[in-house]
Amino acid sequence: MTGHRNHGRKWIGALCALTAALGAQDRTVLAALTTTGPLTTIQGPLAGKRTPVWRHGSLLMLDESAPSSPLITALDINGKPSASVPVRVPGAVKVHLRGYTRTMEGDFVVCGGAFDVEDRQAPFIALISQDGARAQIVRPERYFPERIAVSDSGAIWTLGLTIPADRWVRDLEEGIIRRFGRDGKLEAKFIPGTMIGDMRRVREGGLLVADDRVGWFSTGMDERV
Fold first, then answer.
1. Rounded CA gap, 55 and 78, in Å?
2. What is the per-residue pLDDT across 176-208, written as a single tens digit (0 to 9) for each?
3. Which residues are CB-contacts of 157 (< 8 A; sequence separation ≥ 6)?
4. Which of 78, 55, 32 is nearest to 152 (CA)?
5. Are 162 and 143 a contacting pair, CB within 8 Å?
6. Which residues contact 7 (CB under 8 A, 6 or more apart)?
7. Residues 38-92 pLDDT 10s
8. Would you say 109 and 103 are in contact if contact means Cβ atoms under 8 Å apart?
C-alpha cells in the first residue's frame, strides 16, 4: 500500500504543478506527464487558445489565428513539434474545429463547421495525413459532430446533433453517436436523441473509444453512456 500511496503522490504533485502552470495566462504547459519522469513544460502563448489535448502519444495544440485555416501542431513526449498541418475546407472562409484527434499512425482527424461567404455553416469531418500532403473531407448530411475520437484500429467515432435543412430544430430520432470507417464512410449510428433529456449535453464532456466499445460522459449534466 505504501508503494501505491507514493505512486499516487507523484501524480498529485505533477498535477498540482500542471494546475499552477496553467494558471499563468501567457504560458503553454504540458508535453508529457508520466509517473517516472519530470513534468515537461513548454513556453509559449496560451492566452485566447484552447487547452491542448493528449492523443495517441502526442500533445495537440490548436492555433485559430487564421480563421480559414486553423493550424494543429503535434508535440512529442519531449515537447518538440513533430507535425503541423493547417485544416482547410474547399469553399470555406472560416473553419471552426469542434473536435480534433490523431490516429495511431500519426494522421489527424478533425470535425467542425465550415462557413461560406454568406456565413452559412456546413458540417465536416477531415482526415489529414501527418505531412499535410493528403486530406479527405467528409460532409455528413445535416449531422454536426461536436466530439471525435479514433480507436487503435482506425475507426472514427463522433458525437453530434442532426439538424434539418429547413429549420433549426434537432432531429431527436437520429443517432447522436456514429462510427465512420477509415475511408470516411458512415458505418453505424447509435443512441437516438430521444434517450437524452437535454440535448445541450451533446456539446459537453468527452468521447472515449476502444475497438469494440465507446464511452461518452457529459460534464455537469451527470450523463454517462
1. 15
2. 899 999 888 999 998 887 777 666 777 777 888
3. 148, 149, 150, 151, 177, 178, 179, 180, 207, 209, 214
4. 55
5. yes
6. 35
7. 555 555 555 556 778 888 888 999 999 999 999 999 998 888 899 999 999 999 9
8. yes
Q: Give the predicted TM-score (pTM) of the model.
A: 0.74
Under 8 Å CB-to-CB from 111, ≥6 apart: which residues? 97, 98, 99, 100, 123, 124, 125, 126, 145, 146, 147, 148, 158, 160
DSSP code for 183? T
Residues 138 and 148: their CA atoms lie apart, in Å, by: 13
For 58, the enclosing helix (H) or strand (E) is strand 58-63
CA-based torsion, 155, 87, 98, 32: positive or negative: positive
Please report, for the chain, the start and end positions of each structural domain, with discontinuous segments joined by +.
Answer: 1-48, 49-138, 140-225
The cell for 152 is 487503435
